[in-house]
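Job type: complex structure
Entries:
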Amino acid sequence: MNRFARVTLLVGLSCFSFSCKSKDAPPVAHRATKPFTPPDAATASTISGTITFSGGIPSPQKIEMSQDPACGSTINLDPSLIVNNGDLANVFVYVKEGLEDFSFTPPARPVTIAQKDCRYEPHIAAAMVDQTVEFDNEDDTTHNVHMMPREIRQWNESQMPGAAPIEKKFDRPEIMIPVKCNQHPWMRMNLSVVPHPFFAVTGKDGKFSIAGLPPGTYTIAAVHERLGEHDTKVTVSPRESKIVDFHFKSTP
Amino acid sequence: MAGKLSAGQCQRCKEPILRSSLTTPYNKAHHYYAVFTAFATFLVIIAGALVTSNDAGLAVPDWPTSFHTFRMPRMVGGVLYEHGHRMLAGFTILLTLGITIYTLAVDRRGWMKKLAIAGLGTILVQAVLGGITVLNLLPPAVSTAHALVGQTFFCIAVAIAILTGRKYTGEVEKTAVDRRRPSLIALTLLSVFVLYVQLILGGMFRHKGLSWEPHVFNAAAVAIVLTWTSVRVLSYYSALESLRRPAILMLGLLMAQLCLGFISFLTKVVWGTNAVQPLPMMVWSTVAHVAMGALLLATAVVLAIQAWRQVPVLQEQAVRTGTKAVTA
């Protein structure tokens, strides 16, 4: 075989091997092997705070639901940016770093996401890895649940009125996964899947509280679907209640 | 332009008749059927654009059934657009089957029969692409291919409608030799090419596979090439009505399309980034932009066909004697 043929064969085999590379989803993230033991009351700490917003607040958009009479006539406003006297609602707050060495058992009770009056309730939800998430259709119309993650396989299922809940479990973490309904394009929410139970979602008062943490140093992240993410490092001592506030500004 | 001639004998007539593969007797019903099919196809393109603009592509998550049945579902919300699009498309497939059979039966032109069969094949591929994109949750490349094949079929339907018309079933009446470079046929083919590129870039943007910049930048190339082509026709071939009309139409559609593109950009990209749902102005501007794009592409294809029919390219041939002979 001459030199040209050898080089061509080598290049061809290389291209072939690259093209045959598996395009499946990335492998499941490394799981820690040390089971988490909840700290006792003498040592457990709490991180809490308030999330505020400053800057121009656009008027909340009114959602037009007339394309499906079954959605009712209640006036609904866009929930993607809710600010009450400077307090920011619907911010997902969680421990981003500091718990990697532990494994956690998800609770048996499911996280329930209701489709009611053609809205998702809650608008921001979270579940643990391998915890059951239930989608209930409480309306007299068909919805379809279309989940669009980056790390795990996308899925889309329709749900007739009165149908059994759609139950799903997710085996890898991902933050702020968009979920929408293709029947009713205003229906959107975000679901976060985390490997531990230390997370919270702010209410209308902008407040969050994460309790039961062992003493240590953590990175706390606050994520808003439109305003992005803010992180901060926090060190808590035994039985300490630390206040950590976040501040978001309007995007240009 | 002389076609291949063959003589035949009419059994009932007393004189022989000449048959040409480039001509066929005009059939009014056939022509009107073809026009109706092209119009129905245009409506399907509008319906498809409404599906995407209303974010209803997965409102019916299964195919070819709808919610695991062939019965009509409740036509509300996204289902109205998605299932409505499927119903119109199904009706158009039946129309296409009919026009194919009709063409095979009445049209004597061999190439026309092939065109009709190609149209039927194209729309069947289009139907399958529509199913594949739904079942795979709208991958941008497949959804864009669905848009591309749909508009290709529309061009075929328009071509059949034009070429079954009274003016096009007989011999070509008038021609003009093309002495310029690039030739008119080359310019018309380039026009079709840049429009296809624009369609791909626009489709990938609409289906979230690409950002808006390539589509907007390529619009400049489209504007230059289409204007060049139209100006060439109007400057040198304005006496040929069958070229002049599509050239003027193409210029007019181009200007309208550029305006619609600008409005779509404003409503969708600039103002609509945080829209809670597809807003009416966003929907109608983008749907009109898609529909106008289909008309523009079909017009460019018709112009290319006319250029091929009526403006042969002047070529120089070196003959064996060594002297150059100029032939048309």
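Summary: Chain A has two domains: 35-104+196-252, 105-191. Residues 106 and 131 of chain A are 5 Å apart (CA to CA).
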